[in-house]
Structure formats: C-alpha cells, structure tokens
Write a structure and sequence with these properties.
Blueprint: H1 2-15, H2 31-64, H3 82-109, E1 122-129, E2 132-137, E3 142-145, E4 147-151, E5 156-162, E6 167-171, E7 175-180, E8 186-190, E9 196-202, E10 214-220, H4 222-232, E11 238-239, H5 241-248, E12 257-259, E13 261-262, H6 266-271, H7 275-282
Parallel strand pairs: 1-5, 4-10, 11-13
Antiparallel strand pairs: 1-2, 2-3, 3-12, 5-8, 6-7, 6-9, 9-10
Amino acid sequence: MNRRRGPIALTAAGALPLAGCEPGVLNPAGAVAGSEKLILLDSLAIMLALVVPVIIATLAFAWWFRAGNVRAKRRPDWAYSGRLELLVWSVPALIVIFVAGLGWVGSHQLDPARPLAGAAPLRVEVVAFDWKWLFIYPDQGVASVNRLVVPVGRPLALRLTSTSVMNSFFVPRLGSQIYAMAGMETRLNLRADVPGSYRGLSANYSGKGFPGMAFTLDAVPPAAFDTWAADARKGGPILDGHGYAALLRDSENVAPYTYRAVAPHAFDAIVKQSGTPLARTATDGRAH
C-alpha cells in the first residue's frame, strides 16, 4: 500500500507549483493578445536559430578536444581569418535585424491607441483609485467598480487615467498592458473574441493595497451586455460628487458594484484633477 502512495504523493507534490497558475499571455482570448503571442513565438524562433547551434557547437568542441582524444590537435599559431570573422559577426547581426524588424512592425500594428477594425467600439473610461478600478460607460450612462462587462467580439475603446499614483492596466489574456497616470489620459483598444471571465490587474506596485487591486472582465453576448446595462440603471448609487469622494478613500479588496447614473463629463473632470465640476453637475438631475 505504501509503495502505491509514493508515486501518487510525488505526482501531487509536483503539481502543487502549478496549482496557482492560470491562463495568461500564451493563451490569448482576443485579437491583440493573439498577435502579441505570435510576436513572442517568432522572436523566440529567430533567437533559437543562433542559440541552439552555439550550444551544440560548445558541447561538440568540449567533447572533441577532451583530454583523452589523441586525434584532436591544438593549433594556437594561426592568423586573422576574414571568413571566421564574417561568420562570427554576420549571424548575430542578422538576428538583431530580424528581431528589430519584427518589433518595429509589431509596435506599429499593435499601437494601443490604434482603433481595431470591425463594429463601432464600446467606449469605456477607466480610472485607477487606491486600490480599486472604476469603469465608466458614457454611452450607457452607468459605471462599475472592479468589474468590466463587455460584449464579446466588439472592439473596446478605453480611456485611462489615475487619481493618485501610477498604475498599469492589464488583462493578460487580452494583451497590451498600459499605464494610467494622474492628470493624464492614455488610450487602449482591445477586443475579447472568446466569451468568458478574465482576470484583470494592476501591473505596477501602488502601495499596501496593491495585492487586492484586481478586477474581472466578463465578455458576454451583446444581448447579455444590454441586459446588464439596463439592470445597472435600475439600482445602485449615483456617481456624483459624494460618490467620487467615497471612491477617493483608500479601500482594499472591494467587492464589485455598479452606479445607476454618472455625472456628465466625469472622466474629463477626473483627468483635470478637479472634483468640483463633478460635484456641481451630478446632483441636480443632470446625470446620465
């Protein structure tokens, strides 16, 4: 009995390091992430074209010039070899050219601010707080905290900012990590092509609440997204001056919730680091 338990225990112990793993950049669920994966694999293949022969040559030289091989002759007295220099320098130069070209083309094709082809994008305004994420849907007139619901297959046009320290918005399975900075606006275009729930996070350390600064991106059918937005408008608080002031308070591991209405131009006021316009336009019935 104990003999049988040995292999089982060994297998279980070997699986423990993988228990916390989850799909990431190598398991894309969107067009941008898929292109980024292709760039990673192409770069790896190009570099392996140099690395593998070097490793093989190193092992071959070590084996051939071993002490017990009497056929190996050491000839230290040799002059400059142009052919050898050409071989030594040309191959790494070609590797650098290929990888640089791949990066150049990819960086333009996958420019975060470049709109994606397809249907009209869903506009979402993203604000990083300490330590939570706010998602404003200006066309739907609602907002949510720590949960981003999007229609599957529809491009997303994101505008991002932060209220304090710099954060980094990242959904590994959709790609394109990008920074959110106070007083500034950055843009990001993504698309979820596969329905599901995907983990989002801040990839830049932002203080003691950083470990819990995560959110869920739910890619749902378009009809389900419309239903979610309609339900959000039926209940919940209003994102006005008081709601914004509450969000500014430090909080950790915040459970997702929604706002049924949002002050007009709330995101622009946050970018300008001005809470007064948000408070003035949100409480008098002019919220979306």
